[in-house]
Amino acid sequence: MTRNPPGELPPERARLASALRELKTATGLSLAALATKTTFSKSSWERYLNGKTLPPRRAVQELCRLAGEPEERCLALWELAESEWSGRAAAPRTVEDTDPEATARAGLSEAETGRRAGRGRLMAVLASVCALAAGGLSVALVLLAGQSGDSRPSPPPTSAPAPRCRGATCEGKSPMTMKCGVTPLTLASHRTASGAHLELRYSDTCEAGWARMWSTRIGDRLELNRAGGGHPHSAEITDGVAAQSYVFTPMTEARPGTTVRACFRPVRAGARECFEARVRFRPRP
């Protein structure tokens, strides 16, 4: 089995940890506040965000909920990291290839891996049966909650943090740092010829827009501008972890009626790809 150099995370876990840190930044919460709003402790979140420990699936879902982001991509990253962590993604290991201390810490002996897989299959069957039965949803939730190892009840939904800028004061600033990345609108989506995913995003509370990309390559570049003027902003993929994570451009002021435009410049030979969208008025509740 190929091992990573000391102190270096496996790429699957590094990508997941990077995505979770971006989500935490979007929530505007400290580790202590994150612990009070989820079913996981401050020390647990510290380990999850640094990649020291693989978080439970439920932790990823709760963080996505707090950040107002769809959970599908992070759960896909979690599946890859979990496969690496449990050893299911690796070829069968010999005794000489196994680090006894690491195996003991992670509980990854062959017997334990088999028990874990058996428990996972049992949980899936039970959840399916209970979901079909009267009152089954509550039972399924209890079963899933038991996997977290934390008996605290799920916290009620929380309000989004207040943004730190609005309109022109957001120009050139990070949507995550300025708390504009909570419950944004997706104005337009585009998939490039190279397979990269792009989105134009907008916050009506910040009156600012930005673009983001993922599934990219090192050296890919995304540029953002608004029609009728304004300083262009850009983001570039600088390493392998960023290539598998969300990477954002800085924001540009974008009030209702403004057209924002994003252009993708692939690192490999290929034409520049651009798409745009117009910000429309959204009535407030």
TrEMBL record:
Region (Disordered), start-end ranges: 89-112
UniProt keyword annotations, A-Z: Membrane, Transmembrane, Transmembrane helix
Indicate the segments forming the HTH cro/C1-type domain, all copies. 19-73
Q: Output the SUPFAM superfamilies linked to this UniProt entry.
A: lambda repressor-like DNA-binding domains
Q: Which residues cross the membrane?
A: 122-146
Q: Its domain of life? A: Bacteria
For this protein, the record's SMART domains field holds: HTH_XRE
Q: Does the record carry Membrane as a key word?
A: yes
Q: Which Pfam families match?
A: DUF2690, HTH_31
InterPro entries, per the entry: Cro/C1-type_HTH, DUF2690, Lambda_DNA-bd_dom_sf
Q: What name goes with this protein?
A: HTH cro/C1-type domain-containing protein
Which organism does this sequence originate in? Streptomyces venetus
